[in-house]
Specification:
This protein is α/β, with parallel strands linked by helices and about 400 residues long. The protein contains six helices and 26 strands. It binds adenosine monophosphate and magnesium ion (MG).
Length: about 400
């Protein structure tokens, strides 16, 4: 069995990013990957400005001890610059964001003054540069705002917008085909017959992709039939960049997915030293990347988070980043059989500055209840047996409601 690290490395290395780009409005680019480096077309801020409300002064001329008097000779407000030159004992009233008048090199805070008509008494002598936002100190014209492949999140999009960039070139969306497999599955809304259960994996995957730059092709349910599976997978691979199935990859008599893939494509690996998710099958059908996720709902989700999401990121021209691992104390004993790395669903809390994590009850891989309230995955190493309460463990934070790990 492949260890999870090796599997991940192999997988990412085997994925060919889509090329091409489209230009979209910055307001519509949330979650997309930049297709090229984007440089600032302007200095931000575009002029030296005041960071505070107060008085613009020439601090280098103020060779006196506070308190001292100054004369107010004008005003500069945001959007309304003053053309008065400042020097000596002259000051200009200035508000946050207003242009620093010529000659001024510092701001005296309003709180450090007393005003009497056109005169102020300065109670705190300013140093040159104090409370001045210099032109270009957020970003200078020609500097790179984002690199090609960067995920355009709300922070970066607002920075681009502040630079006046209204349109950006982004990578095309990844077309992800999703199938459920299994004769026992019915759609929510239908009536359950004997031995039937509601399909939930396809549903989960589509929701978990909601903030990825994808187009989801929901291709429904496949029966436990090799020929039907083969035909459906071949067709899906013609339309999609990534094909994902759930179920049918174990060693049962009704598990036809692997055989079907082998007929129309290839498998790069199958079986990972992972719990849940051991039967994960990864391969290729035509130009599409293929993922056969195990069918138990928790296994489907965990393998999707750990492997499929980074693969989609890479396919879509982004740079998958390994999730941040934090150390926490486990609140209870953990039963664990040596051999496979286990990801338990957990709830981490801060206890007086120390992270403490507890698993969400019985961790059986059919129990979606284990995700209820979970905010992390607890990593139980494959080369360890049972863990004792209070031991340090690694955790990976879950971003609730999306498929992203921190
Ligand atoms: P399989 O890997 O096909 O043997 O499925 C393992 C377990 O997951 C079985 O109990 C299936 O009924 C269940 N399962 C498979 N696919 C789904 C699905 N799409 N939604 C809910 N449960 C599923
Ligand atoms: Mg099945």
């Amino acid at each position: 069995m492949l260890n999870p690290e090796e599997a991940y490395r192999k997988l990412i290395a085997s994925i060919e990013p889509l090329d091409g780009a489209e230009t979209v409005e910055t307001r519509d680019a949330l979650g997309r990957f930049a297709a090229e480096d984007i440089v600032a077309p302007v200095d931000l801020p575009p002029f030296d400005a005041s960071a505070m409300d107060g008085y613009a002064v020439a601090a280098r001329d103020l060779d006196v001890a506070a308190p001292f008097e100054m004369r107010v000779i004008g005003a500069s407000v945001a959007g309304g610059p003053s053309d008065i030159r400042v020097g000596g004992r002259d000051a200009v009233r200035i508000l946050t964001g207003a242009v620093l008048p010529e000659g001024a090199d510092a701001i005296v805070l309003q709180e450090d003054t007393e005003r009497h008509g056109d005169t102020i008494v300065v109670t705190e002598r300013p140093r040159p540069g104090r409370h001045v936002r210099t032109r270009g100190h957020d970003i200078a014209r020609g500097e790179r705002v984002v690199a090609a492949g960067t995920r355009l999140d709300a922070y970066r999009l607002s920075w681009l917008t502040a630079c006046g960039i209204g349109r950006v070139a982004v990578r095309p969306r990844v077309r992800v085909a999703v199938f459920a497999t299994g004769d026992e599955l019915v759609e929510v809304g239908e009536t359950l017959g004997p031995g039937q259960i509601y399909e939930s994996n396809r549903f989960a995957l589509a929701r978990l992709m909601s903030d990825l730059p994808v187009e989801v092709l929901d291709l429904g349910r496949l029966p436990d039939d090799r020929e039907a599976t083969r035909a459906a997978l071949a067709r899906a691979a013609d339309d999609a960049d990534v094909v994902v199935t759930s179920g049918g990859v174990s060693v049962g008599d009704a598990d036809y997915v692997r055989d079907a893939v082998l007929e129309v494509g290839q498998l790069d690996f199958w079986k990972i030293a992972l719990k849940p998710g051991k039967p994960l099958a990864v391969g290729r059908i035509g130009r599409a990347d293929f993922f056969g996720l195990p069918g138990n709902p928790v296994s489907t989700i965990v393998t999707f988070l750990l492997f499929v999401v980074p693969a989609i990121v890479r396919r879509g021209g982004g740079v998958p980043e390994p999730p941040m691992r934090l150390r926490a104390r486990i609140a209870h004993d953990v039963r664990h059989t040596l051999g496979r790395r286990e990801y338990q669903r957990g709830i981490v809390t801060d206890r007086d500055g120390e992270l403490v994590v507890a698993a969400t009850g019985d961790q059986s891989s059919n129990r979606l209840a284990t995700f209820d309230g979970a905010n992390c995955l607890i990593e139980v190493p494959g080369d360890r047996g049972d863990l004792a309460a209070d031991e340090a463990v690694s955790i990976v934070l879950l971003e609730r409601g999306s498929g992203r790990l921190f």
